[in-house]
């Protein structure tokens, strides 16, 4: 289990992190979301020892993290850290051996990832000759090749096509099923919502919301109803008690004062085809808590 407690970091007068805390449990996929400059990358770099915190603590398995522990982590930085002149499979094997793998095991792991991430045909290509999307895949494979105990991935899905996104998602879900905790940052909130067990929203260096998507939905202040009527007179939506958010033909989304009152009035106005609460998307929750 990874535990981050009250991390603080300043750059002169700028506060980059202001008491950031979060916990990632075994087999959990944790989505770290926030605007550019919110503190996601700084937090990850502190976990990996690239930066030193001004205050707070990072613990793994309830012990302070040192170099030996970090060597067992898989890390994908925001910027690519690949050897441009090195061939793809050679590069993966090299990083696997840097993490202590025997040559044969490093090659097996590299070949498996090349196949899983759709890079087999590029295995003997120099990295600099790859497209940006394929370079991203190689960077991801480097983070995975040594079969790490923990994954810290900074924008891993950036620049990937839908097929590559699905391939990577499958690999990450397999790792979490095996008990590996995964932390990844992303601006693709629909992807975070689909994959993650827990989400942390950071703004201006502070964690403003942490929990499962269901828990974050539960704290949403504005509850919305979806009502679909047939056989209703024109203008029926304006007669429902509540604030209308959106209208589209026979469908209306509104914020009600009393859902039962809305239902009674809808039944009086026409035939109720659909009636129920609308679950807010993660993007809506994000805007709400950041604001």
Automatic annotation (TrEMBL):
Stated name of the protein: ABC-2 type transport system ATP-binding protein
Similarity comment: family membership: Belongs to the ABC transporter superfamily.
Gene3D superfamilies: P-loop containing nucleotide triphosphate hydrolases
GO molecular function: ATP binding; ATP hydrolysis activity
Origin superkingdom: Bacteria
InterPro entries found in the cross-reference section: AAA+_ATPase (IPR003593), ABC_transporter-like_ATP-bd (IPR003439), ABC_transporter-like_CS (IPR017871), DrrA1/2-like_C (IPR025302), P-loop_NTPase (IPR027417)
Keyword flag NAD: no
Keyword annotations: ATP-binding, Nucleotide-binding, Transport
Pfam families documented for this protein: ABC_tran, DrrA1-3_C
